[in-house]
Structures are given as C-alpha cells and as structure tokens.
Amino acid sequence: MPVYSDKVMEHFTNPRNVGEIEDADGIGEEGNPVCGDMMTFYIKVKDDRLEDVKFKTFGCGAAIAVSSMVSEMAKGKTLEEALKITPQLVADQLEGLPKNKFHCSNLGAQALHKAIQDYLSKHKKGGNDHGK
Amino acid sequence: MTKSYLDHTAATPLLPEVREAMMPYLGDIFGNPQSLHDWGDGAREALEAAREQVAGLIGARADEVVFTGSGTESNNLAVKGLALAQQGKGKHVVVSAIEHFSVLHSARTLAKWGFEVSEVPVDRHGMVDPDDVRRILRDDTVLVSVMHANGEVGTIQPVKEIAAITGDRKIPFHTDAVATAGTLPVDVIALGVDALSLAANQFYGPKGVGALWVRKGVRIIPLLDGGIQEGGRRAGTENVPAIAGMGKAAELARQHMAERINRLVPLRDRLLKELAARIGHVVVTGHPGNRLPGHASVCVEFIEGEAMLMLLNGKGIAVSSGSACTSRALKASHVLIAMGLPHEIAQGSVLFTLGIENTDRDIDYLLEAMPPIVDRLRQMSPLYDKFMKASRGGN
User: Fold this and answer.
1) Band of the pLDDT at B2, cuts 50, 70, 90?
2) Which of B4, B42, B90, B362 sits CB 3.0–4.6 Å from B29 for a disulfide?
3) E strand segments, A1-48
4) Which of B302, B306, B343 sits opposite A61 (nearest CB)?
5) A64 vs B332: CB contact, 8 Å cut-off?
6) Which pTM value belongs to this model?
7) For chain A, how many structural domains are there in total?
8) Once rounded to an integer, what is the mean pLDDT over residues B53-71?
9) What ipTM was estimated for this complex?
10) Rounded CA gap, A126 and A104, in Å?
C-alpha cells in the first residue's frame, strides 16, 4: 500500500461531501487527467458563508482524501476564511501526504478557490447582492 | 477474510518443493563453490545441477547459462555487455518502446556512453512489427533487444521473426524472456536468439536470482569485475541457495507447463469476459489472443488505478496498476502510452496476473468485490459525470 497516513486512509475510504450541487452558486475545476487527478468543487453560498460544499474527484487515494478534507474544512466558513485554506494546511490536517503526491494530488484548495472566484465573478458584477 | 492474490507478475509464491531444494544450502552445505575442498564441492555440485535444470527449461547448453541476481541484472548484462563487446563494429542499438526499464534504462546509459539508440514502436495491441525492426537496422547496428512478452499487457512478441531478420544480418539479438520463461515453452534454438534473460521469481522460485543465456561464441563484456565465477561473466560468490531453488523451479515448470497453461487460460478468459460484462466501459489492454496465459490487463474508464488497487486490497485482493499515481515518478505506464492509449484511459489501468494456486473461486470473489468498488469510484468521478451527461444529452 502507498505510505498514507491513517487520516488519509480514513478520508479515502469514507469521503465526506461527495456529489454535485444541482443549483451551485460556484463551480471550480482543477487538474487534468494527464497528471492523474481532476477535481470539481461545487459551492452553495449564503450570507458570504459556504453553506454547502460538494466535490467530484478523479484520481488516486490522496486526491480523494484531499478533496474530502477540503470540503470538510471549508463548510461553514466565510468566503474570506475559505480562501485562506492552502495546500499545506490541507496536508497538515491529513497528517501529511507522501512527498511525491504533495503537488500532484493536493489540488483541492485550488479547486475550491476557483469555485469561490466563479461565485464572486457572477455575483459581484452588480455590486453587493447580499440582499438578494 | 477471503484473500485472492492476483499479482503474480510482481512475485510468485515459493513452491514447497523449491523451498525444500534450497534448505540444504541454508544449512550444512554452506561452502563456497570455488573452494577446492569437500565443502566447496557440495556447493559446486548444487550450482552445476541447477545450471543443467535451467538450461533444460530453455533448450540450451548448461555452459551457456550465467546466473545473475535478478532479471534486471540479466537485462543489464545483456544490453550493456553485448553492445560494449561489439562497439568496434558500430554503436547503434535497437530496443522496442515497451521494454522493461532494465532494458530501456540500460539503453539510455549506452546513449550516455556514446551509443545511438533507436526505439521500435508498437501497435495498439502492444505488438512489435518485425518489418519495423528491419527498417530501423543500419550497417552499424550492433544489438537488437525485443522482449518475448510484455509483463504489463501480456502481449507475446514475434521474436522468432525478428531473430530471422537479425540473424541474416549477423546482428546479436537479445530477448527479455522474464515474463515467458517458465510460463510458456521457450526454446533458444527454435527462437533463434543470441541471448535470453529469465528470472526465478516469475515461476515460483526465489527472488534475487536470475539467469542470462548467451549463445556460445557470442562475446559479452562483464559488468562486475572480480573473480572467475560464471565463466568470468559474472563475478561474485554465487547465491547457492537461490540458484538451487531456481534450478528446482525450472525443473518443475518444465514438467508441469502444459497443465499450468491449461488451467490458467480458462481462468484468464473468464475473468476478462465477465469483468467487462459486469462493469462496462472496460478496455482490455494487450493483444486479444496472443497473450500470456494468466494475464488479464484492463483499463477501467473514468476512474484511477491506485484508488481501485487500495479498495481491492481492503477486500483482500492483490492487483497492480500502471497508472501514473501508482508509480513513484507519477508517470503513466510507458507501455500503455506507447500503445497509444490516452492518459485518462491509462490512468484506469488494473493488472490481474493469475498463478497456479488461483481457482475459479478467486475469480468469483473478484467479480463479486470489484463492481461495487468501480461503481463507488465512478459515482465520485467528474469524468463519469461528464460522460453520463453527454450520453443523456445525445439521446
């Protein structure tokens, strides 16, 4: 077996928040199949907070565990807080990732950030739409 | 928990008879085969008996067999040793694109030493076309190395036809027969090759021992300098217990080859047929008919191999994968890419290699355990999602 931490194995075997949000407020994709991993994050935003986060991931055990961990870390956070989630923080929460997987599989934070950017670009055009 | 070991290309279990044959040399008969006293004689007799047994497996003369430390070492010795011995005649070397790394990287080292290396491509079934070899040969070609069968996709290569071409041109031809020797009939004379590598752990022998057969009269430069062991072609005190084990494993492989093949082929065919029927979107890799007896390699679309491997391991099933994620270098299998498979398909690589201890029960268990795993990973996969939406949209 690859040298994964117990935490990675736990998230890989029981990933949280797998799925798709039909009427997502933002969608972010990261990775490509050539390097092996692809992640899509879906977010639902309410009052500047991530009310719901779901993901779909094509990739190895590490990629699936990373996605699961990112979704768990992000849920309930404000957009500003969620944008501060870094690959290093994700790896730390997972009790480490194998060195060779750190860059390749650790794309969850970027995919989440892209979903947030997607939301912001759609919703900030007409100014603050919090009252919507 | 039920357990099914389906990764015989990585390692085979040691047969009890083989272990028995090794035991005396891990015990009382500990002498150095090069010693001139009785202790040495006992070890030397074991060494020479094993040489006869290995030669018998491949239709060779015993004095043409050099014991090495692995299939990898055999391939290194063949590729570098044969090329170096010929470098007065030229510096062009030909290998296929799907060779094992021990051949490809040896060729790369030769390139650093001033040789020129050409790679022969393969078709989508992983097959080398002998005409491609013919076209790539030059006046200064001093070595051709094409494997007998590929361990990742199981395709058996037209070695005899290639040997006819190189033979006409008097170019030494090496074949890596690690995947075939001890599994399929291999006869060095009938094949017409000049050098052939084999490894004991592919046919229920111990790890850490291989052999290189070199036709008498073909020059080879040793890689290890030292004593005169193995006719001066491989210095270093011989690994007598492992060599004795390889000899016994070779003898048993020769005796039981037909019955082993007859057991493995139906199991393999059943696995490939029923797995594809149960999970759908499965690409069988390698040649559909001309493949190793116990070898079933596939790519499962929309999901990745390492994730499958780990979940199968959780169910007690051992397999391997050529996906980028399973390799240390994070590169998809060079074999699958050389066959023209797109990266996202190659990522779904799973390799089942059956052995003589497997039965229909192992296949039943795999066919029961694998579909829910595939389904679960597909439900998680954005690629599957896109595929399903596209196919719905198309209706």
Assistant:
1) confident
2) B42
3) 26-32, 37-46
4) B306
5) no
6) 0.94
7) 1
8) 98
9) 0.89
10) 37
